[in-house]
Amino acid sequence: MSHDEILRTHGEALALFGSRVHAVRDDQWDGPTPCAEWSVRDLVNHLTAEQLWVPRLVRDGAAITDVGSDYEGDVLGDDPVETWDRAAVAAVAAFSERGALGRTVQLSYGSAPADAYCTQMMADAVVHSWDLSRAIGAEERLPGDLATAALREVEPYAPGLAASGLFAPAVEPPPDADDLVRLLCLLGRRP
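and the corresponding C-alpha cells:
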C-alpha cells in the first residue's frame, strides 16, 4: 500500500470504530464482547490506549521503555467517548505528519517501520469495530475495502497469533466467505 492509502485506511478504520464508540448506550459499557474477558469499556479502553501510544512513538520517537506504564489501566476516565475522540485525532495527526510513515518506531517486539505500525493499527481497529458492533447490537457489516486491507495485513502473521495466547484459534470460514468473514475466522471469531 502507498503511504496515502495507509493513511486513508487508518483514518477510515478509526472513524468506523469511533462511530461505534459514539453508539454505545450508557447501559452497555459493562456488557460482554466477543473478546474473552473484555467488557465494552475494556475494549474501548484497549483501542484508546493504543491510540495514545502513537504520538509518543511516532512523533516523539519514544521507546516502549520511555512510555512505561503511562497507558496501563483505565485511560478512559469519566468521559470514554471524549477520551476516545481526542486519542484518535492525535493518532491520526501523528501518523499524518510529513515524513512520519518513513520513520522507525520502537515497539514491544523491536524496531519497525512506522508505515507497518500504522497498517497494524488499522487492522486492529477494523477487527475491534466488528467486536464492538456485535457487543452493542450495531451494524456488523463493515466496509469491504477496510476488511480487505485488514485481511491483507493479518494473513502473513495470522498462524502465530493463536500461539501468543492473545487470540482464539482460527476457525474454518464458509466456502463463500467474504474478506470480512475470512478475517474474523482467521482471528478466531465466529461471525
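(Above: one complete record from the training split.) The CA atoms of residues 104 and 113 lie 5 Å apart.
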